[in-house]
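TA notes, week 10

Several of you asked for a full example with nothing omitted. So below is the full record: C-alpha cells for the whole chain, then the designed sequence directly under it. When grading your own attempts, check the secondary structure regions first.
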C-alpha cells in the first residue's frame, strides 16, 4: 500500500484522473476483502484485509459505480477529498497559521470616510 503521503498522492491522482469521485459515496459497506483491486493503490484487497466498498450513483440515472478500497486507502482518499480542494464543496487549504488565502480580515475601519 505505501506510507501516508504516497497513499494521499495516489488518492489525489485517482480523483484528478476521474477514476475515483471527489464527493461522498451514496452507500458505504465494510468487511473482509473481496479480492478486488483497490481504487487508490491498485493492489488487491485480500480476504485478510479490511475493505470498504463505495457506491456512487451516476448522473442522469445511468446506474451506479462501485469502488473497492483498503481501509488505509479510504482514509487517505477521505482526507484528500475533504482537504484537497479538488471539488467545489471544499474550502481551500489553510496556511500554517490556519488562515485561508484571500480570507484575511481587513484591518481598516468601515464606515469612516477617508
Amino acid at each position: 500500500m505505501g506510507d501516508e503521503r504516497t497513499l494521499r498522492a495516489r488518492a489525489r491522482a485517482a480523483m484528478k484522473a476521474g477514476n475515483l469521485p471527489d464527493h461522498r459515496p451514496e452507500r458505504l459497506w465494510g468487511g473482509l476483502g473481496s479480492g478486488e483491486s483497490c481504487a487508490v493503490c491498485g493492489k488487491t484487497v485480500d480476504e485478510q484485509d479490511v475493505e470498504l466498498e463505495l457506491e456512487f450513483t451516476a448522473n442522469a440515472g445511468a446506474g451506479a459505480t462501485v469502488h473497492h478500497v483498503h481501509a488505509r486507502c479510504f482514509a487517505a482518499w477521505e482526507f484528500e477529498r475533504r482537504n484537497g480542494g479538488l471539488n467545489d464543496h471544499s474550502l481551500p487549504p489553510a496556511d500554517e497559521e490556519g488562515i485561508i488565502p484571500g480570507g484575511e480580515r481587513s484591518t481598516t475601519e468601515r464606515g469612516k470616510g477617508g
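The mean pLDDT is 80. Use that as a sanity check on your answer.
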